[in-house]
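Q: Hi! First time doing this. I have a protein sequence and I read that you can turn it into a structure. Is that right? Here it is:
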Amino acid sequence: MIRTLIAILLAAAGLGVFAQAPKAGEIRVNVSGVSGGTGQVGCALHASEDTFPMGHNGVHMVWVRPKGERATCVFKNVAAGTYAVAVSHDLNGNRKIDTNLFGLPKEAWGVSGNIRPALRAPRFSEAVFVVARRPVELAVVVDK
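A: Yes, that's right. Below is the predicted 3D structure, encoded as structure tokens:
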């Protein structure tokens, strides 16, 4: 009887009955520094340095209304991998970061890791994080 039970348990384990499949990741981006609680906050999930931080092709976007000086973007069912997030506070509703004559942002922005180089755009490698089986929670501060 015990041998039969052990044989059944081993067979079930071999078939993966007890194995847990990796769950798709969830990324929660807690944004602070939003001014005035107006407009929309856009969070862009980048899987490549080719699009980061301003590209839109193949980028998953989430748009939310801020609550006071904060907003939360949630990306669900994200495949395991390496990502970076770029955040913008769109005040005029055109769903892009407006820039001045020199190409500098006129609206508040931020990236994962809160990297803010003085004379260039942040690099993907500086803002990167890993999504695996557990949810990822990020804090991003937006500023001009």
